[in-house]
Design goal:
heterodimer, A: 398 residues, alpha+beta, Butyryl-Coa Dehydrogenase, subunit A, domain 1, Butyryl-CoA Dehydrogenase, subunit A, domain 2, Butyryl-CoA Dehydrogenase, subunit A, domain 3, 4-stranded mixed β-sheet, 4-stranded antiparallel β-sheet, globular, B: 374 residues, 3 domains, 3-stranded mixed β-sheet, 11 helices
């Protein structure tokens, strides 16, 4: 047992910190830190910088051009990225589709899609959820009917994050109604420009356009776009959910958010004294810090087990629950730290190039937006209730 | 980073675990707890033989361990058995004696070999959790000192052969300066211990010191260091009882899990009910959090943020430990309310540990203070 970083880990951290110091454009980190909306161009710029440095796919196996990073390295990188104020990498292509293609895709699919994901030619989004298939994902209804060399897709996907920017979408579709619902699902890749694909925005409760509905009407997709075998799509989707352990706890995001909160609490005044000195506020903040310190270690324990090749267990779900609840409690406390200045909201102020005088403190505008937006974290990626089901199923076997 | 124990430490944990599993069933434990001493001297001798006491002390002090993780793995196993032998009191007082003179170190050797028992008589009726609170006095008289005062809830204070007593040489009652520590034979004239059981089945004593004469060489270490030595002793003690709570928490969760799988109501195992499943999932998540906090505290014992990690641990153990203890009883239902069924005894230990070395609120306050200082 040793809580100190090894020499290799220290060298790794040094390398990564140097990278962020030298290569992360100030204009991007300023936007991230001040809670501004990132454009597709911002995302592409950062994506390209990461790719040039070989960090975009460093977690890929070496045979696919990655560096074979283990879970610990990925996690350390993630924390440093957050602390440095780097934009979050849009995960759909490089972190979600790619592992599935590497594990189950054909050689042709790998050779075609992986380089295009890396160089930014193709932007991907995810087509899993449907209006009637949320937590009960396996009940999804969108159909893919085989007709000669094509599948004909009909149905609707929803909650498609950044679908408005995407060139391609990977979808779970129903190819059979036989057997259990899980057994008739296939994994298929769809060009968003195909006739019959329509993207309609969903505006979230805080007013942002982040997610979409994607409608499919008689969309013709070549059979070679099927990944792996027909009716095995559920296995592929689960493979991803189960093996994606890095970053699930959001340690880096939590650390960056709590730093920001402390900054606000020193600046805000209560009865003429810094809010940070208020005993009630300090107690709430301290409790979060205590939980976060424990979660950092829980997270590293899970990452080490993953790096050592241990099969995924209920700990992944524990990290999802704890990580999201903790970050939500930081958002909540940050909102309360602002007092009445949590209320004013100038939507344009979240866009690049807004130069008018802020209303209230310059950090105030995005805080309540973040609070509301982050309510999603305990809902997406398998709601926290589903995570609790997973834990109890694994532990109790009932 | 490395979250695997060394082979030696794994062996130590296995050995302690085996002893608890094989020889420490709950019936036997209750019997030993109810005996005059409140523990078994035979068992204690066997534990000393196995090296479980020596594992708590550094080589310098005559032991062969003493690192945070040695203490943590031993106490976690003790917690799984609700072991009543006086590990804690000997850790607390022994840690202080390790900095003493040769004859005091010789006493510590006797502790490690299982022949001598110590207790730390520090807390007082009005001190609550304030470590610097010492109203007992040490007045210079001739070649030695005369001690007077009252010591409260002294863990294992009624069976100890020697007491390590804190008393004030100078200053106000809560000053950190002016405290001294003395090694006092428990049978010295003027020492009176009123022993009793605690609600969770351990032993403690109220100790009155009335004109107790001790020699100059009874002082342990330099009076200047007394407060820091107490801090160290309490840091180790807090780590120890927190790890012990973790062991008890594991038992609560194991028992509750088993019960959910076997107890049937409405024709199905009650673990089929989501209202219980989700609470169980939260209990298990918090258990992992507590384990992580134990690791953080044990791994930072000799670092600058020792006290932050110790307070973070104790706060979390108090907060989440209570949740787990209460939920274990609730999810069992009526059976957990009986003396015969073990889970209640583990729950009692977890809750009473919140009353040692500072509770949830005390340690939250410490964390706030550290935050201000930073």
């Amino acid at each position: 047992m040793d809580l100190n970083y090894t020499e290799e880990e220290n060298a790794f951290l040094e390398e990564v910190r140097t990278f962020f110091a030298e290569k992360l454009p100030r204009q991007l980190s300023d936007k991230v830190r001040s809670g501004k909306r990132l454009t597709r161009e911002d995302q592409e710029q950062w994506h390209a910088i990461l790719n040039d440095a070989g960090y975009l796919n460093a977690h890929w196996p070496t045979e696919f051009g990655g560096q074979g990073w283990n879970a610990i390295q990925r996690d350390l990188f993630d924390v440093e990225a957050n602390v440095a104020g780097a934009p979050r990498v849009v995960p759909f292509g490089v972190n979600m589709l790619s592992p599935v293609l590497m594990a189950f895709g054909s050689k042709e699919q790998q050779a075609h899609y992986l380089p295009r994901i890396l160089d930014g030619t193709d932007w991907w989004c995810q087509g899993y959820s449907e209006p009637g298939a949320g937590s009960d994902l396996a009940s999804l209804k969108m159909t893919a009917e085989r007709q000669g060399d094509h599948y004909i897709l009909n149905g609707q996907k929803t909650w498609t994050t950044l679908g408005q920017h995407a060139d391609w979408i990977f979808c779970l579709v129903r190819t059979s109604k036989e057997g259990k619902p899980q057994e008739g699902i296939s994994f298929i890749l769809v060009d968003m420009k195909t006739p019959g694909v329509e993207v309609r925005p969903i505006i979230l409760l805080e007013g942002t356009h982040e997610v979409n509905e994607v409608w499919f009407t008689d969309v013709k997709v070549p059979v070679e776009n099927l990944v792996g075998e027909e009716n095995k799509g559920w296995t592929y989707a689960k493979y991803l959910l189960v093996h994606e352990r890095s970053g699930i706890a959001g340690v880096g995001d939590a650390l960056a958010s709590i730093d920001h909160l402390k900054h606000i609490a020193r600046d805000q005044k209560k009865d003429g004294k810094p809010l940070a000195d208020d005993p009630f506020f300090a107690a709430r903040l301290s409790e979060i810090e205590i939980d976060l310190a424990a979660m950092r270690t829980t997270n590293m324990r899970v990452m080490q087990a993953a790096s050592d090749g241990a099969p995924p267990g209920p700990q992944t779900s524990m990290l999802k629950i704890k990580g999201t609840e903790l970050r939500q409690s930081i958002n909540d406390l940050t909102r309360r730290a602002l007092g009445p200045y949590a209320m004013p909201f100038v939507s344009e102020a979240l866009e690049t190039g807004y130069n008018e005088e802020p209303i209230g403190p310059d950090y105030a505008n995005p805080v309540a937006v973040d609070y509301f937006n982050h309510r999603k974290t305990s809902i997406y990626g398998g709601s926290n209730e589903i995570q609790r089901n997973i834990i109890s199923k694994m532990m109790m076997g009932l | 980073m490395d979250f695997n124990h060394t082979d030696d430490r794994r062996m130590l944990a296995d050995m302690a675990g085996r002893l608890v599993r094989d020889q420490y069933d709950i019936e036997k434990r209750h019997k030993m707890a109810a005996s005059d001493d409140g523990f078994s001297r035979e068992m204690w001798a066997q534990m000393a033989e196995l090296g479980l006491i020596g594992a708590l002390f550094t080589e310098e002090a005559g032991g062969f361990g003493g690192a945070g993780f040695d203490i943590a793995v031993v106490f976690e196993e003790l917690g799984r058995g609700l072991v009543v032998e006086p590990f804690l009191s000997n850790l607390l007082a022994g840690t202080i004696l390790a900095g003493g003179n040769d004859s005091q170190k010789a006493v510590l050797e006797g502790v490690i070999s299982g022949e001598t028992l110590l207790a730390l008589a520090h807390g007082e009726p009005a001190s609550r959790y304030t470590l610097s609170h010492v109203g007992s006095t040490a007045v210079k008289s001739g070649d030695g000192y005369t001690l007077n005062g009252s010591k409260a809830v002294v863990i294992s204070g009624d069976t100890a052969d020697h007491l390590v007593v804190s008393a004030r040489l100078s200053g106000d009652v809560e000053d950190k300066e002016g405290i001294a520590l003395f090694l006092v034979p428990a049978n010295a004239d003027g020492v009176h211990a009123r022993g009793y059981s605690t609600v969770d089945g351990y032993r403690a004593a109220e100790i009155a010191l009335k004109d107790v004469s001790v020699s100059e060489t009874a002082m342990v270490g330099d009076a200047h260091d007394a407060y820091a030595n107490l801090e160290t002793s309490f840091a180790l003690g807090t780590l120890a009882v927190s790890a012990e709570a973790l062991g008890a928490i594991e038992m609560c969760i194991d028992m509750t899990l088993e019960y959910l799988k076997t107890r049937k109501q409405f024709g199905v195992p009650i673990g089929k009910f989501q209202a219980l499943q989700h609470r169980m999932a939260d209990m298990m998540t918090e258990r992992e959090q507590i384990r992580s906090a134990v690791i953080n505290a044990a791994g930072n014992l000799d670092k600058a943020d020792r006290d932050w990690n110790i307070s973070a641990l104790k706060n979390l153990v108090g907060r989440s430990g209570r949740m787990i203890a209460e939920e274990s009883i609730q999810m069992h239902g009526g059976i957990a309310m009986t003396w015969e069924y073990a889970v209640g005894h583990f729950a009692k230990r977890i809750i009473m540990i919140d009353h040692m070395f500072g509770d949830v609120d005390h340690h939250l306050e410490q964390i706030i203070k550290f935050g201000r200082a930073a």
